[in-house]
């Protein structure tokens, strides 16, 4: 609209450890893009939503936390996690309420082996590996259904139920097939219907049903064990990999490792209908071992910021950022220590912005 600048309201949740060190570089890159493409980003920072807050006050975020985020256009998250605080606290105290509260049922994790990065996998040649894991993000194996019985008795047991709903599986499959049709038209579904005899056959059935509506997509399915092996041996064979919550969690970490460093990989928690804000974050955690030293690799957060701009309707700006990531790795020796270099987070960010 003439004379009006698009404004995007961004919630920043730096979290713990290096989370707070990688968000400022991402913001710097975003601000360059806002100037170049003429949109406006207004940030609200939730600086103390973290495990440190949990240790002080017994909660990762305030009771009305979800309501505070509701009117935002997107959420950019650093990382949450702190030594001594169990992972399930940060997961159930912040990440899962946001994912479920805002129906972010797609977890999108792109993986690329960039020129200039050594993959630990010999056959993962730069440029050839360019895939996306689409992970179902709100149901499946990570359910609260189940319990512990007979504590202290010899027949003590734990039961954990997996919940797949037709609506919940279908919507993430639709997203994955749509994405595959816009990319190379190939989709692989992760299954385990030989061992998991109720839920996975239902998943497979729904994949076959949805596939009928996407005739242009060539699809297949692989058992999760074989698929894990193939992603290591022949990652270039894959384009879109769609998986349940647990399988997708495992595969996306595996694929990020194939790409050379966990410091590079981003994740988008998407509410495709845009009823609620989506959330963008690096895949890595708070990395307490290197926190406070200014050497964290900011690429995961910067790539996540690019995915955020794409979601907000600025695909050209998003491409500029991923092009700059590819350039800084292919054309310069500037690297953070996780990639074998000596640059600090700030030096590496400066180099990337120069190329941008
Ligand atoms: P959390 O408890 O928050 O998950 P973590 O100890 O599991 O934290 P991760 O962040 O998952 O740590 O990463 C594991 C290791 O990878 C870290 O110990 C760190 O050395 C390295 N690492 C992770 N992210 C980065 C990064 N952005 N830059 C450099 N090294 C990183
Ligand atoms: Mg971790």
Automatic annotation (TrEMBL):
Domain (Isopropylmalate dehydrogenase-like): residue spans on this chain: 9-352
Catalytic reaction annotation: (R)-malate + NAD(+) = pyruvate + CO2 + NADH
Name listed for the protein in its UniProt record: D-malate dehydrogenase (decarboxylating)
Record keywords, A-Z: Manganese, Metal-binding, NAD, Oxidoreductase
One Pfam family hit: Iso_dh
Record-stated family: Belongs to the isocitrate and isopropylmalate dehydrogenases family.
Names of the cofactor(s): Mg(2+); Mn(2+)
PROSITE patterns, sorted: IDH_IMDH
EC numbers for this chain: 1.1.1.83
Top-rank lineage group of the source organism: Bacteria
